[in-house]
Fold:
Amino acid sequence: MDCVFCRIARKEIPSTLLHDDPDVVAFEDIHPRAKVHVLVVPKRHLATANELGAGDEPLAGRLLVVASEIAKRRRIDSDGYRLIVNCNRHGGQEVLHLHLHLLGGEPLGAMISKRPV
Ligand code: AMP
Ligand code: ZN
Structure:
């Protein structure tokens, strides 16, 4: 796939890689919205959370486990953090390759703020 996150997973585009295993990569978001802003991404191209199906439970769980490991490594686990998956237009998804945002390092405010979509 000629998709930016597929290309990052294949190391064709540089990123600040924080995690790399057979199924999942994680790297710093290029436009961080918080002091810690990491993207946790399956290597397999799934456009959105809608593409997760039966059999993808291990992958979906792996994304959460990797996010939790990185949160501990970055020492934001006890103060806390937020995990976000945006989906399609109402979710404000910009990159159509499933990804989990790990945000923290400072108070994050309200869970959502309404903005035009
Ligand atoms: P979303 O709106 O959920 O699709 O989020 C996409 C995220 O990907 C945004 O926070 C972008 O800043 C981030 N992003 C886009 N291109 C890159 C890139 N080449 N490297 C790292 N992060 C990126
Ligand atoms: Zn992709």
In short: The pocket of adenosine monophosphate (ligand 1) is lined by residues 4, 13, 15, 27, 29-31, 39, 86, 92-95 (CB under 6 Å). The chain has a mean pLDDT of 96.
